[in-house]
Amino acid sequence: MRKVILGAMFGTVLLGGCNELKRGSDQNVKAEIKGQEVAVLTAPPNVPPPIARKHNTKLIVNLEVIEKKMNIAKGVEYTFWTFGGTVPGSFIRIKEGDEVEFHFKNHPSSKMPHNIDLHAVTGPGGGAAASFTSPGHESVFSFKALNPGLFVYHCATAPVGMHIANGMYGLILVEPREGLPKVDREYYVMQGDFYTKGKFGIQGYQPFDMEKAIDERPTYVVFNGSTNSMTGENALKAGVGETIRLFVGNGGPNLVSSFHVIGEIFDTVFPEGGSVPNHNIQTTLVPAGGAAIVEFKVEVPGNLVLVDHSIFRTFNKGSLGLIKVEGPENKAIYSGKTADNVYLPEGGAIQKIKEKEEVALAQNLDDQLKLGKNIFLQNCAACHQPDGKGIKGAFPPLANSDWLNTNVRQAISAVKNGLSGEIRVNGEVYNGVMPALDLSDEDIANVLTYVYNSWGNKKNTIKPRDVKAVPEKSTDLGEH
Does the pLDDT of residue 10 top 90, yes or no? Predict the structure, then answer.
């Protein structure tokens, strides 16, 4: 059985039932406040350092609303309404029993009034009524941190859904009195669904689409405000043997997240950011307006892939991130591929084929086109369509494709090694994953020759030697 690496996070106050909860809350109200300090806020994916003090204090939180244009995807600009200039908003870390003096500021350049509803607040609107603030103004209110946990905050100004859909959400952690168990790394990840006039990947500025939002038809579903917030150079980092704690939130406004890390099992999960731990979890539900804390130890190197396991959202709407784990391999835990054998399910004894039919070798261009068409219909037509026109926004067209016709070697590599990430085809951006096809060099040459000689493409002829000349590459993006 996999070792559970981290203990209970928020103590045992819940185990005594409602009476214990009430006594705990009463104690919080009466707790002595010593001095004051200004809270450290961080932009995602960073988290403020753990709270070292053993006493409660008056904590000053300064949070500013800024309306600004940022990229939601490469080449796609959107007007976000932000807490602290980022989506999600700044991470706030306080201690159970603290007295929080909240300074809520709305930048003079804003066009809209805004407020904040903190789910960690016991009081009308979670602070929304007290924090309603016009552009160029500042509102101040205070609250007592009564309940430990991980809580969402968001704007609650009408129309509430529109404010949230434009990125107005974040997380506030109320650490329990005894603090949290130490881990090596903590990260801040928050999912959101976005609704633009243009389809996924359409370049240029894209305005908000209220009709799509009401119908719950998001154009983008992303982590930390964009499709590339945690990929490439922005990928999260860890080392073999380290323990990781992810503070995971879901701003919504509509979708429930099925949060999963490909290549790991959560040793401990605190569902909905609460106090009762669960162990050995594969995927955890994070409701809109909710949160979860997941903890795990990384034992082997490679790319761990963060996804919403409502999987089309990940590969077609953008909810994908990476944790790059570096360090020594451990073959006892994960060997990698150790063999690639021929599989004959009916048994080798009955696989009797005439010698001339054992290997279908093309003798001329007509043979290549005939064999290539069969391979295309068996392996490619479901996504790229029998007429090669693809599916707009999902699978790029092969018909009259500038991407194919520009570089034959990249086309060969896509079939041979697979392809992931953004590509531009005939003026539109596609961001998905094409798996490597288990085809021979002969088959790849034939199917590409068929594609190149169809639907208005350049009439290239690909030979097996051309395929062999393209090097093989490995990938870490496979589901486990």
Answer: no
Q: Treating both helix axes as pointing N-terminal to C-terminal, what angle do 365-379 and 441-452 enclose, rounded to 10 degrees?
A: 100
For the record, the structure tokens of 432 come out as 């998905």
Side chain identity at 34, as an amino acid letter? K
Tell me the percentage of the chain whose pLDDT exceeds 90.
76
Q: How far apart are CA 252 and CA 246, in angstroms?
A: 18
SS3 348: helix
- Who's near 81: CB < 8 A, 6+ residues apart? 65, 67, 110, 112, 114, 155, 163, 166, 167, 168
Residues β-bridged to residue 172: 92, 151
Contact predicate 94/59, CB 8 Å: yes
Query: How does pLDDT run across 271-327, given as a tens digit for each residue?
Result: 999 999 999 999 999 999 999 999 999 999 999 999 999 999 998 999 999 999 999
The dihedral sign for the CA sequence 430, 436, 439, 444: positive
How far is the C-alpha of 1 from the C-alpha of 280, rounded, in Å? 9
Across the range 61-78, mean pLDDT stands at 97
205 touches 266 (CB < 8 A): no
Cα–Cα distance measured from residue 384 to residue 174, given in angstroms and rounded to the nearest whole number: 49
Backbone φ and ψ of 154, nearest 5°: -160, 165
Query: What's the token pair of residue 1?
Result: 């059985």
What is the DSSP track for 68-100?
EEEEEETTEEEEEEEETTBSS--BEEEETTPEE
Residue 48's pLDDT is 98
In this structure, the dihedral spanned by the alpha carbons of residues 41, 46, 50 and 55, taken in order and rounded to 10 degrees, is 10
Instruction: Give residue-wise pLDDT tens across range 389-424.
Output: 988 778 899 999 999 999 999 999 999 988 887 899
- The pLDDT score that the predictor gives to residue 164 is 98
Pairing of strands 290-297, 243-252: antiparallel
Report the sign of the C-alpha dihedral through residues 68, 72, 73, 77, in that order: negative
If we measure between CA atoms, which residue out of 114, 154, 153 comes closest to residue 131? Answer: 114
C-alpha span between 162 and 200 (Å, rounded) = 19
Relative orientation angle of helices 441-452 and 408-417, to the nearest 10 degrees: 130
Euclidean distance between CA atoms 371 and 375, whole angstroms? 6
The answer to whether 326 touches 298, Cβ cutoff 8 Å, is no
Q: Percent of the chain, pLDDT > 70?
A: 88
> CA–CA separation, 306 vs 230, rounded Å?
9
Q: Name the nearest CA neighbour of 383 among 395, 374, 371.
A: 395
Instruction: Inform me whether the pLDDT recorded for 36 exceeds 90.
Output: yes
* Pairing mode of beta strands 56-73, 290-297: unpaired
